[in-house]
Design goal:
Length: 445
């Protein structure tokens, strides 16, 4: 029977960091993945999506500037954009595995499942470890509706050989909206079916509405307060049936994506056999990221109950786990976390939404304005620019900030620095920024 000091599930950002750190500290380490090595973000998520988006952004920018210095025919080539992304991802699995092996880490493939708190089984062979680290990330939420087998998921997006004439997304969260806008700009007729009243539900309603408006101007049809009930295949196409308050409806499409959300990828691990407590947010962990029921087992990254599905936070959590495994006693301590939907325009937020501030009975004031006519936005003929800053009424500190615009992701990074430094918004506005830059716009907010 093989035995290791540390056994890591998952080879994404979090899993690799833990495995490498523990091996460098002299521990025996095994790592396993049931898919290609390298994780979701680098191969079928954030990174390839942003590479395709780069082409879309350039195409969109040129179109917006047509007549103001840009002329001629502007085309978007789907295959070229896909090939650009694939050139980046194609070597990741082999490169990742070779780097781990070169450090002396045992690399395994397949589905290892727990049979007790100290043992897993893989292909009939038992493997014991002093510590286990669960870093398996997330997987698409199953809808449990008839015909779900006909639905594509986010990973399938990168396998599209051509732009579909019509496409339906069930779920208008950040994955659905990003993919939907990309395909709409590539020429698809896009329909979003959203269960609730607001798209991009975790984000501030004010900025989400701006993205909704610009998406509709792009030609995307957004059906809200609708529940997908089944998918049928008929003559090479698909019929999506959905219910609304006024009854049943249907739409015919060339392909349909399930973008209703993602859940922790733990179903295949048999956590209950190891007495590992989990909930809808993932493995339930304490401030040291240890399982609350099995302290020798850790969880980090998207699968941790203390996490948000954001790559930078995965690295922070993995560092905490690794330090605890090598003998340091470190608690998770995360600052306010910025998040961005990379639509055009971008939609970014940090801290509390106004609704959350109300629910917490915070005394606050709001700075809010549509900045579409501001110079920076007009300079590039962008479609939308707006902000909502939520300040503590007593001390002027930023408790929430929400921006929609061409460079919202970088602007929200500046807000993140101010919040971490306990800088008031008044002091931030005193900072001297380059002009004209998006940071300088804070002076006018």
């Amino acid at each position: 029977m093989k035995k290791f000091d540390v056994f890591v599930f998952g080879t994404g950002t979090a899993g690799k960091l833990v495995a490498n750190t523990c091996k460098e500290a002299g521990m025996s380490v095994a790592i396993i993945d049931n898919r290609e090595y390298g994780g979701t973000c680098s191969q079928r998520g954030c990174d390839p999506k942003k590479l395709i988006l780069a082409s879309v952004e350039a195409f969109n920018f040129a179109k917006d500037m047509t007549g103001d210095g840009i002329d001629g025919t502007i085309n978007f080539n789907w295959n070229d954009a896909m090939n650009y992304a694939h050139r980046y991802t194609k070597d990741i699995p082999d490169k990742t595995e070779h780097e781990l092996k070169d450090k002396g880490i045992t690399c395994l493939h397949g589905e290892a499942t727990f049979i007790d708190p100290e043992t897993v089984i893989l292909d009939g062979e038992k493997i014991k470890a002093a510590h286990f680290v669960i870093a398996t990330g997330m997987t698409p939420l199953k809808l449990g509706i008839p015909g779900e087998k006909f639905m594509l998921t986010s990973g399938d997006f990168f396998k599209l050989k051509e732009v579909p004439e019509k496409v339906v997304f069930v779920g208008a969260g950040y994955i659905g909206m990003e993919f939907g806008q990309i395909l709409a700009r590539a020429g698809s007729k896009v329909t979003m079916i959203q269960k609730g009243e607001q798209i991009l539900a975790p984000f501030e309603e004010f900025t989400a509405r701006q993205v909704e408006n610009t998406s509709e101007q792009l030609g995307i049809k957004i059906i809200k307060n609708a529940q997908a009930s089944s998918v049928e295949q008929r003559e090479g196409r698909y019929i999506v049936n959905y219910s609304m308050e006024d009854g049943m409806h249907q739409i015919t499409t060339d392909c349909v994506f399930n973008t209703a959300g993602r859940v922790p990828a733990t179903s295949s691990l048999d956590l209950e056999k190891a007495n590992i407590v989990s909930d809808k947010n993932g493995v339930v962990v304490n401030e040291f990221l240890q399982s609350t029921s099995q302290p020798h087992i850790y969880a980090c990254g998207d699968v941790s109950s203390k996490n948000l599905p954001l790559t930078p936070l995965s690295s922070i959590e993995a560092t905490v786990v690794a330090k605890n495994l090598i003998g340091e006693k470190v608690k998770i301590d995360t600052p306010a976390i910025p998040s961005t939907v990379f639509t055009i325009p971008q939609c970014a937020g940090i801290g509390l939404t106004e609704l959350q501030a109300k629910k917490e009975n915070r005394k606050y004031k709001v700075l809010q304005e549509d900045g579409s006519e501001w110079f920076n936005n007009k300079r590039i003929n962008a479609k939308a620019y707006a902000y909502k800053i939520i300040l503590d009424k007593e001390n002027g500190l930023i408790i929430g900030a929400h921006i929609v615009g061409p460079e919202a992701s970088e602007q929200i990074n500046m807000i993140a620095i101010a919040m971490k430094a306990q800088m008031t918004f008044k002091e931030l506005r005193k900072t001297i920024f380059n002009y004209p830059s998006w940071g300088n716009d804070f002076k006018g907010m």
